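Write out the 3D structure for:
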Amino acid sequence: KDGSWRSILPIVEQIVRQAVVHGFSTQEVAEQVKRYDAAFENAVKSEATTPSSNFANELTNLDDDIVTAADYRLRLWKQLRPFMTPNAVSAEFAKWYGQLDQPRIFLSSKQPDAATPDAILAAFEESRRQPVAPPAERSALEWAYADFGPAGRVVHNKLIEDLGIRVIRFDNGVRLNIKQTEFEKDRVRWTLRIDGGKLSLPMTEQYLGMFMDSAFAAGGLGKYDIDDLRAVLAGSTASAGFASGPTHFGGGGAVVSKDLERQMQLMAAFVTDPGYRDAAVRLFRRPLPEFYARLDATPGSALAIGQARIMNGDDPRFVLPPMEALMAADFEKLKSAIGAQLQNGAIEIGLVGDIEEAKAIDIIARTFGALRNRNDKPFDFGAAKASQFTGNFGIHTIYHRGEANQLSWRRVWTTSDDSDFREEQTLALLADIARIRLIDELREGLGATYGAGAGSDMSDIFPGRGTFSISTSGDPKDLEKIEAAVDEVIRQLLSAPVDADLFERGRKPTLESYADWKRRNATWIDIVDEAQSAPERLQRFRISEEQYRSITPQQVWEAAKRYLDPAQSYTFRVLPKPKEKPE
């Protein structure tokens, strides 16, 4: 926060000096060694299926270095590891950071009068005079969340043969979907979905979803604060994260195969024994004033905030809540709002990757399968899914406080939800065609390499809700030409079907992605995660490529005429805020 340098500077100086004077403990060094051990060993196991893009990035940034194999780096680490003693690490740190008696201090501030060089140096010298005590000793921690009760019993076990997805249901109602692959060696992708999410919160408490996303995991667990949790997870790829989606609580990620059990234990612990510590609340609140003060600091952030409010009014599901609401959020309110769903809500878990089915079933049986019985009916969201746009069509000017030569521009049409899969694919193809055509028009009309974006977003949650948008950015002096270029592109898209060349350019990237899309765990986890609760999505997956290939220019044209009415659109001009005239 601007102006807080007086409190920050001594904290930094004294913590660094504390490490110089007192060194690092055996436990601190051991934690880091564990992380290096795991990183080098995991790299060896997964190297065989490393994507080509990773090697391309490595070669691009090579400079004068050399490419080494993962097993070579592991052997080298094992040679160096015996020298990573607390005394050696502490001495090396002290050698370099002990020289901070005359540092160069750089500070940017909107309050230059208070942050003079003399004032900064005086604060530094005052900090140097303060004695530093040894840090508090931290003992080695043992994992405390391995037993959730008797393992769950499987009551349903079926293989969806054409997709290779095994669907399991335990006697407590927990659902598990597994697809075993070898696309990423020694990696498992996972998802956890607990029925509920932001839409299960009262309309007046939607802000608690934003609070939960930032603070819930930071509150740690009943037996560990967040620092102890990170320490006890050292050497594991399991990570602490638990948030809210629109219709579910939970999370997702990827771990090495041997860490899947620890990850599932961790997530089950967040369900059964969240920490709800006040320190996480304070950490959440601290940056809010600065965050809200900078909402119009750039064209992009000003557009995001302004567009949401203009198109949705004050609907708390789609707009940023007032800062006062977030400042008042706390764990007492959150626990009251989500506690019942965490304890009772239907659970569905998705696993994709390099793991045996029997082992995966056993892990879930001893974690989520051991929990209390879950609801067997989907959460009734009722009117919470009903929504509508304001219909406030026309031109809307939004101001930003960024650079004077920066403009963001966007035009948005409302469409529909994704219940018609063919229409969803058709509008996605129309967006790809519009983007190519707009880039061509901007370069021809302005002679500039302005980027352009177009996209179709059709909700799978809110009935009838969808948008089609065209976006670009540039210099405000080109606003008239930009809008003329967009108008021309829309006129052409509405006048007749696009020619064969443009149609092929538009669909080519998607067709190329189909070449190996079924050989990516990232593709499969999006199918597996709701294989039981949303089985209709499996059929979409089956027909996706064939249906996409069957879309014609005529159908794309019909979709454009159906939705891209120039009179039924929102246009957002994000311009530099005019300078105030002196009185």
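Residues 421-446 form the longest helix (26 residues).
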